[in-house]
Design goal:
heterodimer, A: mainly alpha, MetI-like fold, two-stranded antiparallel ribbon, two-stranded antiparallel sheet, 14 helices, about 70% helix, about 10% strand, extended, B: mainly alpha, globular
Chain lengths: ~350, ~375
Amino acid sequence: MKFKTFAAFVAPSLVMMLLFIAAPLVSVFIGSFQLHQPVLQEVEEETCTPGFTGQTCTTTIVTRPLIDESGNMITTTDWVGWTNYTRVLNPEAAWAAVSSLDWSALMQIDFWAALRFTLMFTLVTLPLVIGVGLAIALVVNNAAKTIRGPVIFISLLPFIITPVIGALSIRWLFIGDGILTAGLEAWLDRDLALFAQAWTIELMMMFYRVWHVAPFAFVIFYAGLQTVNQDTLESAIIDGANRFERLRYVIVPHLAPLIVFIALIHLMDAYRVFEEIVGFTSQAHVISLQWLTYDFLQPDDSGNRAFGRASASSMLTMVGIVVLLIPLLRRTWRDHKGGSH
Amino acid sequence: MSTPRAMRQPLALRLTSAGFLAVWCLIASFPIVWIAVMSVKSPVDAFASNPLDVIFGPATRAAGNGLSLLDIVVGLVVLVFAVRLALNWLPRMVSHYAPGGQMLFGWIVAATGYAVAFVIAYFVILPALLGLLNPVLGPLGQPIIGLTTEHYRAVWVDNAFYRNFINSMVVTAGVVTISLTVGTLAGFALARSGSTVAFWLLIVALGFRALPHSVLVAGYLPFFVNSAEILRPWLGEAAPTLYGQPWAVIAVLVSINQPFTIWMLRSFFQNIPNELDEAARVDGCTHFQAFRLVIMPVMWPGVITTGLFSFLLAYNDFLVTSLLLDQSNQTMVPAIAGYFNRETTTTDQVEAVAAAVSITAPLFLLVMIFQRQIVSGLTAGAVKG
């Protein structure tokens, strides 16, 4: 295929990606060093109330946003250097907390609390998703052929469900005296309030995420299991390998590229954890990095959106995902180089 | 062929394996089944702490809403009959009446018509008929399971949830068509070109896929809100405010979806032998003609699968639509957030549950019809690529 034809075919897709992915990235980068704010003016206001002897008048100075002829607020854009980043990271307070080893003080700062949760969430769910997915795949592969279809159907349901709705459906099982909370209370013989503290909410979120993603890992591992070399398995049996050793030394190495693939996808997706916060309405206890940006972007009471801080926090979020993905990308890169030579 | 003795499994292992499978199926389906059961019960029953109360719904039954034995039997019979009709009679009618090239269109018309007819027959005519029969039959006509559709009525009719549904449909239809059109072209070129540019394009697309969506939305919002002023020098008075425009949201979702779409379509195109388009080229087709006349007709499975995943992305999206669309003009998923945030009474909560089930129902149908395509789509990227 000539380059010209190639370019013509790729152009629409490329233009859309440049326009809606690359361009916003640049504008976020620039925006993170800027501050938009309404121009304020101080107005002297006299308010008078009728009194017994005469009017009581008070003069106050109020700050009002300046308004142009068409009724819009006049805003200015200033270059503020690292101010947005400092306001998000709050390095002084964070450093003070770190140097006095005060963990809870550090967790008072939204960004660090969000980073802590996002990283923990990603790293805890990763092995669980791979483990549960592999276990389901092995078990389904072991089951009779007739029930495999229905089992795959049921397994796909948690994967396909809208994330917010999935999180909600788990939440409704536990909220208040929901059916499972009631069950747990009867079993443990004590009163439980699962939405009153952070760690129980986090547990439920992780449970939800594993429930939601394990089917994806399962389907991929299941497809991989169909191509395991039967001869290698048989020779392993002849060599006296038991069931576990066959799993450990034949099946898992065969699935290794798939494990890397799932880890890659899961790292990308789990790092974006957001819908759980919405579904479990947990912002009072737990927030994630993506939710932090979302919160800055929501208009506040006076209709302003904190674009500067949102840009700064999203740039920081991006740095995080790059750091997380580097080991996996390096491995893929080496495999690619190794494969092509 | 019997399995060799060494491969045979001890009973304990087989039992553990079957047990684990049963537990997984229970965990996988329970939350979804449970919210479906909750949504048809009165608030007292839906949030009862005894599971049997939730299933049988005594309070719902006491309020006079319930299904009798007769209702259940007749309902099941009609349901089985309807499914068999859809599987046997419908395909024959479609192939009989639809002209040769218009099969797809014929199916869309037939499926929509059948769905409407089914809803009318099952939810309007049948209840009316059974309402006449039940009192006559004595004990057979007594309600045994509580069931009420009032929450669905409250959500869809009183709260006008159908508007959100229409918005969702507009956004998803737009996203699926545009991202497939744009994606197939790019996917085809990427599959057929072995150049370094193609390789780097794919790597960059993979990088784009990793971006958190909030990063992108933080880039769009300032521009979208002020776009009328920014674009005025070029477009004059016609400059639109992009914030709140459905087509702006469609463009955004298509672009976010592009990296994934081109990766998946590329792996499907790679399965189609190169010789096919070479033969077409020898016969005098241009690249584009070969693509449209020779490759696309054999690409339908891949296109349908990729379309399904585009549909899911657009349908399930919360972040982009909730930030870029106006509060009063939302799609279904962000709209439901409004429900459970304002939930003050248990009735509100059950209405939120009913809305959640309404959102899930189309997805359930989708898995039922396209299970094989979804599985093949999931494995396409991983196993071959």
